[in-house]
Every structure is written in C-alpha cells, then in structure tokens.
C-alpha cells in the first residue's frame, strides 16, 4: 500500500476504542508527513501493544514535526516496535530522530533489523528508560559508534542486546563499552568477524547469556565472563575447549573441530551440551561420567570410530536415548572399513 498521501479522517464516536492489539505495515510507502498522520490512529486504538513495519520505504529525512495541536506525545500502551528492512532513499540526510524521543520512552522492546543503523544517539538512548530488549541485527554498528550509543545513562533497564551481523571487530572493546549497561543479562554478538580473543576482558556484572557463534574465533580464553549460564560458540574454528565456567548450564559447541568431549569437571552444573558436527571419534562412560549434572547431550553427525571400546559401551547402555535426544539415527560409524555408514547402535565388533 502507498500511504505517502494518507490524511487522517476523524472517526465517529462508535468507532473509538478499537480492540486492535497489533498494527503491521508490509511493503508500505511512507513519508514524514504521512507518518505524522498515522500517529493520530493511536487515539482510537488504546489497546494497541505492537507496531510492525516490514520491507517499508520512508521517503523523508525523519522530520517528524506535526503542528502543536496534532502532536502525539507517546504511543499509549505500545510495548513492542519492530522495523525490518526499512529503506530510506535519503539515508545520509536523515535527522537525529529527536522528534520521536518522547514517543518511545515507555516502549519495552525494539527491533530495528537490516536497516543500515550505524548509531543510536546518546541522548536518544538515555530517553529509552523502559527499554528491556533491543535487537540491532544486520546493521552497520562498529565499536566507535556503539560507545556513543551505550553512553553513561543509556538504556538503564536493558536486559537483552542483540548486535548480530554488524561490523564489530574486538570482543574486548565491545565488552568494555557495554559496562554502562548495569542490568544487561544477555548479549548476542554472533556473526561478527572478531580478532583473536585476549586473555582478560571486562563485562557488565549481570551477564548470564553470551552468543559468540559464527564469529571465526579459533580459541576460547578466560576473557569469557565466569557469570555465564548459557554460552553459544557454535560454528567456529575451535579444536579444544578447556575453560572453567562454574555457573554454566547450557553449552553450544556444534560445527567446530573438537576431537574429544571437554572435561566435565570444568562445568559442575552443566545440564545441556550440543557438540554435533565436530571431529569426535568416540566417547566413553568415564567421559560422560565427568559431567555431574548433564541431562542432555547432542553429539551426532561426528566421525565415530566403531571400536570395541565404543561398541561395548553403547551396548551396555540401553538408556542412552534418555541422554542423547538424537540417538541413534545421527550416530553413524565412520570406520573401520567394514562398518562405514552403519548406525553405531546396530554395529557389532568382529570376533577379533
């Protein structure tokens, strides 16, 4: 729909208080002027909780300055704002959005994805006092501008920040910049191309979830915060993992180059580990027994050597499916030569 020339018409009394919860625009053409007109709809949808703009185009420069009598100063009950793939032809002439600061002060969740965002002005971040969830995936954020966005007093209630697939380079600098976010518990910085990890880093004090998947890292060091409960380092170049994480409950290691299971004593409260598509050749009763609380292990699609040791272990553990949710279909023999492609569960050692 093209709402570039949309002009709001006053509704009759019986149409007030519409029960609408969500308002979504898809493939819509907007202008600065029509955006101001659309805001007037809020007066007639007091139960609106979510606004969404997907694949829309904004032919304007963010000059949202309605006349004094028409000003909508807040979004009512709207808690969630989602913007995906917003196209702004005059992108580099765009204003600083100061005209919408007051509108978003009570919003709790904002997603702005694939929209060429490179900066959230410090003053804007400070006004987003209720924001708990912020997703800026697939944009143009770098450390220099992230420092301005996460300035002192920015996003005081923020708990989850997603910066997946941006242009971050330094894990150390990223953690240091985010120290201002005292309530941050979850950080997703996956799909960035990071330089090698240093030995020490500083992180927000309440960090519990960290996603470093698909970042090209070759080693995990003590830079990783020990407060973590969930760590995702899947789809990287790791050939070992020996890091003591006393609170870790979930560990995601799939699509790396590990040849053995990590030492379970490093993770005293670990409940879930996924280590699919690595270079594992075997695992034993002792290895599994080193994880004191492990409930779920996904280790399929590895290169298992169906040796006497592995086969005798699996034959003696009929309840493996309770721990291995992908057992038996994802566990295939890679060798010896007479067994490739056969399920480990059905393979039998030779007499020799």
Provide the succession of SSEs.
Answer: EEHEEEEHEHEHEEEEEHEEHE
Could you tell me how far the N terminus lies from the C terminus, measured between alpha carbons in angstroms?
Answer: 74 Å
Please state the overall shape, judged from the principal axes of the Cα atoms.
Answer: elongated
Q: Strand order of the main beta sheet, please?
A: 1-3-5-6-7-8-9-10-11-12-13-14
Query: Given the structure, what is the number of helices?
Result: 6
Please indicate the percent range of residues in DSSP E strands (runs of 2 or more).
15-25%
* Low confidence ranges: none
The pLDDT mean sits at 91
The major beta sheet can be summarized as:
12 strands, parallel
Quaternary class? single chain
**What is the share of helical residues?**
10-25%
- State the total count of DSSP E strands: 16
Tell me the radius of gyration: 26 Å
Question: From the helix content, strand content and strand pairing, which structural class follows?
Answer: alpha/beta
Structure at a glance:
With about 350 residues, the chain is an alpha/beta fold. It has helices at about 30-40, 120-125, 145-150, 170-175, 285-290, 310-315, and strands at about 20-25, 30, 50-55, 55-60, 80-85, 110-115, 135, 160, 185-190, 210, 230, 250, 270-275, 295-300, 305, 335. It is found in: Membrane.
Polypeptide structure, described:
The chain is an alpha/beta fold and 352 residues long. It is built from 6 helices and 16 strands. It has helices spanning 32-39, 122-127, 143-149, 171-177, 285-289, 308-315; strands at 22-26, 29-31, 50-54, 57-59, 80-84, 109-113, 133-135, 160-162, 186-188, 209-211, 230-232, 250-252, 272-274, 296-298, 304-305, 333-335. A 12-stranded parallel sheet has the order 1-3-5-6-7-8-9-10-11-12-13-14, with no helix packed on it. The model has no long low-confidence stretch (mean pLDDT 91).
């Amino acid at each position: 729909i093209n709402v570039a020339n949309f002009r709001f018409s006053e509704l009759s009394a019986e149409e007030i208080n519409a029960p609408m919860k969500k308002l979504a625009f898809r493939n819509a053409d907007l202008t600065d002027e029509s955006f101001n007109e659309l805001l007037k709809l809020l007066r007639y949808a007091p139960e609106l909780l979510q606004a969404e703009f997907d694949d829309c185009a904004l032919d304007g420069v963010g000059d949202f300055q309605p006349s004094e009598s028409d000003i909508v100063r807040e979004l009512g009950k709207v808690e969630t704002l989602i913007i995906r793939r917003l196209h702004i032809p005059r992108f580099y002439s765009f204003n600083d959005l100061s005209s919408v600061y007051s509108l978003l002060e009570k919003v709790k969740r904002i997603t702005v994805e694939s929209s060429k965002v490179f900066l959230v002005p410090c003053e804007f971040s400070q006004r987003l006092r209720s924001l708990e969830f912020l997703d800026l995936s697939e944009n143009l954020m770098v450390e220099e501008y992230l420092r301005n966005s996460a300035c002192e007093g920015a996003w005081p209630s923020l708990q989850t920040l997603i910066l997946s697939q941006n242009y971050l380079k330094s894990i150390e600098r990223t953690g240091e910049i985010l120290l201002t976010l005292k309530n941050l518990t979850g950080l997703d910085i996956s799909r960035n191309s990071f330089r090698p990890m240093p030995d020490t880093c500083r992180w927000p004090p309440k960090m519990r979830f960290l996603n470093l998947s698909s970042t090209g890292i070759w080693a995990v060091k003590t830079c990783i915060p020990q407060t973590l409960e969930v760590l995702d380092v899947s789809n990287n170049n790791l050939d070992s993992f020996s890091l003591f994480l006393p609170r870790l409950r979930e560990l995601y290691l799939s699509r790396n180059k590990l040849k053995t299971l990590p030492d379970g004593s490093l993770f005293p409260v670990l409940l879930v580990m996924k280590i699919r598509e690595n270079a594992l050749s075997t695992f034993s009763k002792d290895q599994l027994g080193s994880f004191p609380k492990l409930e779920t292990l996904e280790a399929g699609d590895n290169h298992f050597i169906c040796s006497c040791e592995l086969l005798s272990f699996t034959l003696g553990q009929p309840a493996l499916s309770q721990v291995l949710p992908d057992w038996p279909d994802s566990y295939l023999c890679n060798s010896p030569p007479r067994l490739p492609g056969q399920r480990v569960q059905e393979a039998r050692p030779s007499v020799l």
